[in-house]
Amino acid sequence: MKPSYSTAYSGATRKQLSQAEYYNLYPKAKKYYKKPSSETMKKLVEENKEKFTKQIHQLNHILMDNNYLTDGGYRDFIVSMYKALTTGRKITPKMEFSIGKIVTTYSEWLKKENDPEYKKNKIKYIENSLTKIKLLEDKLYEANYSKSYMSDKKYFLDSIKSHVKSRGNLSSKQKEALNKMYKQFNKRIENNKKGNEK
């Protein structure tokens, strides 16, 4: 009787394991795996291409939209679904649902991006955010830190500016980091002034 092995996912992260990682975790499973012949693979690829033509084009379009996706976990997930469709993998109902959700999420984002009022507010948000970051840069130089420290913080602020310009938003962690820097720089400036008065 063929033994049963767990699915190819890490229990801790739910990240899909590669075939090599899976066999490393379950070495006995390898001898029960029979690699499909090239003819079978070609057949499976053609079947997916015919059955999921629309989804393949949709995911390809989403991956090509640099305004929507940056490097990261979500992009990797979409790439994995695209590869599953185009390399002849069996598409389970759960995978098909996930692909549909990817397309729906993108459609909702695109609709919002093309809304005139949303675009107006987004531009305003970007401008206000860049003004505040410029203020932080001025505070950084005024605080008179060491060159290496200033260079490190300037690099961070430049990355935040790039993010705001491309994404039009800031995460809660980014906002928290900027607020912390503002308080820190102000405190440093005040202490420098007190030191000069003595």
Q: Describe the main β-sheet briefly.
A: none
Question: What number is the mean pLDDT?
Answer: 84
Q: State the separation between the terminal residues, measured CA to CA.
A: 86 Å
- The overall strand count is 0
* Count of helix runs: 8
Structural class: mainly alpha
Overall, the morphology is elongated
How many individual domains? 3
Order of helices and strands: HHHHHHHH
Low-confidence stretches: 1-7, 9-14
How much of the polypeptide forms β-strand, as a percent range? under 5%
Q: Tell me the helix content.
A: over 70%
Radius of gyration: 25 Å
Would you write up a description of this structure?
The chain has 198 residues and is an all-alpha fold. It is elongated and about 85 Å long. It contains eight helices and no strands.
Task: Sum this structure up briefly.
Helices cover 72% and strands 0% of the residues. The chain has helices at 19-25, 38-51, 53-64, 73-86, 93-113, 116-142, 147-167, 172-197.
Q: Any chance you could write out the topology, listing elements then pairs?
A:
Blueprint: H1 19-25, H2 38-51, H3 53-64, H4 73-86, H5 93-113, H6 116-142, H7 147-167, H8 172-197
Helix pairs in contact: 3-4, 3-5, 6-7, 6-8
